[in-house]
């Protein structure tokens, strides 16, 4: 059964968008601080129960502390994600309404999916969703959100209306802000310092950039084949092999980085070679 201190600290760390490992480190550090404060109060003559209660009072409100830590780790990110969510929702309804009024028909599936990703992003921003690994969850939603709105841009470009230049600017801003938040979220690494921090940042930058390349190429091939095919074919799942490899090797590199940095570097090189080889093979087959 968890102690009062453990429940208190758990509420604090759950408000941050750190990885599971980072949350564990933060949990231990905050718990130790509280225990030392309690021990000092006991030495001053307080009973254990009084010392525990006073240590919590001196530490402060757990929700406020969690919010402050989150803001310190990710400055201005809450405001940027809130802006991204609201602008995206407004953009979605605008594209949907224009298409509906112009052609009498609209992509209801895209509307629902884009609203779902934007609403999920908004819920994460307002801390309405709690996850063991909020960092991965936030970045997954941001990547999905960017892909959905790229498709929305394609829908908007297929229709001739005077507001398209304005829509293009808004869409470009949505995509750039999404990419910025993806990099910004991934590069906050409280569990690293010194050379390890530099290596971890380089690992994330290279992997995210490679992931954007892979997803872009995958979507291109899917789009190209869907143009010539009236329905989705099972073999099209093969296009996702580079994505699966990228994700698997990305996770492996992170796991190896702290204890086996050399193995992590070798894995990174193999990842790039494998993915590029598969993409090159796909391009040859496409021709």
Automatic annotation (TrEMBL):
Record key words, sorted: Membrane, Transmembrane, Transmembrane helix
Keyword Metal-binding: no
InterPro entries on file: Perm_prefix_1
Segments crossing the lipid bilayer: 80-101, 107-129, 136-156, 162-183, 204-228, 234-252, 264-286
UniProt-recorded name of the protein: DUF1129 domain-containing protein
Protein's organism: Peribacillus butanolivorans
């Amino acid at each position: 059964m968890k102690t009062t201190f453990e429940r208190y600290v758990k509420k604090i760390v759950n408000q941050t968008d750190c990885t599971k490992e980072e949350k564990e480190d933060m949990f231990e550090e905050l718990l130790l601080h509280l225990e030392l404060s309690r021990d000092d109060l006991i030495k001053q003559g307080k009973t254990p129960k009084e010392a525990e209660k006073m240590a919590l009072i001196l530490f402060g409100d757990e929700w406020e502390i969690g919010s402050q830590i989150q803001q310190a780790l990710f400055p201005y990110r809450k405001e940027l994600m809130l802006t991204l969510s609201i602008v995206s929702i407004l953009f979605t309804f605008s594209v949907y309404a224009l298409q509906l009024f112009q052609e009498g028909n609209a992509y209801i599936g895209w509307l629902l999916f884009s609203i779902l990703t934007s609403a999920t992003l908004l819920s994460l921003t307002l801390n309405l969703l709690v996850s063991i690994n909020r960092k991965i969850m936030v970045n997954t939603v941001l990547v999905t959100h960017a892909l959905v709105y790229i498709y929305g841009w394609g829908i908007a470009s297929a229709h001739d209306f005077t507001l398209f230049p304005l829509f293009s600017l808004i869409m470009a801003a949505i995509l750039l802000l999404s990419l910025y938040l993806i990099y910004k979220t991934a590069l906050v690494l409280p569990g690293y310092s010194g050379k390890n921090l530099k290596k971890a940042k380089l690992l994330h930058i290279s992997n995210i950039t490679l992931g954007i390349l892979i997803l872009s190429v995958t979507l291109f091939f899917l789009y190209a084949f869907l143009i010539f095919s009236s329905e989705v074919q099972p073999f099209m799942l093969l296009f996702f092999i580079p994505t699966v490899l990228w994700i698997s090797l990305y996770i492996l590199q992170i796991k190896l980085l702290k204890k086996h940095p050399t193995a992590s570097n070798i894995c990174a090189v193999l990842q790039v070679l494998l993915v590029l080889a598969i993409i090159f093979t796909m391009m040859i087959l496409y021709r």
